Amino acid sequence: MTATVLELHTGLKSENERITNSIETFLEGKGLKSTNTKTTYTKSIGQFFEDTRGKKLDELVMTDLVFTFEEVQNYQIALTKVMKDDEGKVRKYKNKTINGKIDAVRSLYKYLMSNDYPVKRAWFDIDNLTEFDSDSYSVITWEVAEQFINAVKGHKDGEMKSLLIELAVVTSYRLDSMLEMTWDSFGEKNGVKCVKVLGKGQKWDEKPIKNELFERFMELKKQSDSDRVFPANLYARAVTRMMDKLKKELGIVDKNLTFHSFKKCGMYEVNVITGGDIKEIQRQGNHSSELTPLKFYMEQSKDLSQMPCLQIGEQVDLSPLESLDKDELIKLIMSSGRDVQTKLMQTFEATEQN
After folding, report:
1. How big is the CA angle at 81 (ends 77 and 86), to the nearest 5 degrees?
2. Transmembrane segments in this chain: where (predicted)?
3. What is the pLDDT of the chain when averaged over all its residues?
4. Which of 32, 80, 112, 254 is paired with 135 by a 20 to 30 Å CA distance?
């Protein structure tokens, strides 16, 4: 191991190679957590240097790494403007996306500082943009999810894709975790069929599944010559295209309905089944904090028609009191809180004085 490390360092012939090697090591480290994270960071960091220095990551020299706070601020501002991508299509980043891009570069510079590069992380200590324009993923019911499960069976590799969607609903696994699954992910525990994946934050997530679903996966395994459950050509972008095609077929125009909505569907169904048990919603979504499932529950249980603000300015309906006799009214007043009793007495005294 030591010899390999020494060979890596002594083999560098220029600052360009040293920078390239450091960035690649940083990105590989991100890949240990998630391949999706590595891909996102690679794109964000690559875009930063292409937009600011006009160079690719393997072309950088030491002076290219030096920035001022103002330069970074101007880059952030530029990202908020409407621009065209490489294909000439007009695009506008959401604030959440911009924050993510800056965070990726900020994280790289923290890494470079730790490796004695003459850079300052403070150059990137700009304020994050307010994410007021961040749209949440749509939440769908099982009935809607079932439409997708049935419709995709008419596509190429339809059975495999339908299993992908159904598994996403019943387990609420993230897409990137499922695409990394091998056949060893399936098993049995205490007589119950189960599946296990490495989820967000490198945390294992094991869920039970019905025997019928398990057997359908085993039938799929018989047709496979790979250790992977889902083929390499079924990557995130291919799934996005699949979703776009399915929504068109089903006449659904909701832009916030994505594959992630199937995860939300599983959480919603658990919410309904358990009567809003926050712990069970948390377990279904594999969230480390109760705040996320609590926020989810509050959103799903919100009924605009019953919100108190609709009663502001409205007269209180006192008609139910008209049928009460004197003894019933006194009993009602005695059982009321001190604030009600005090207000009644103040009104009574004011009336007596008049």
Report:
1. 115
2. none
3. 84
4. 32
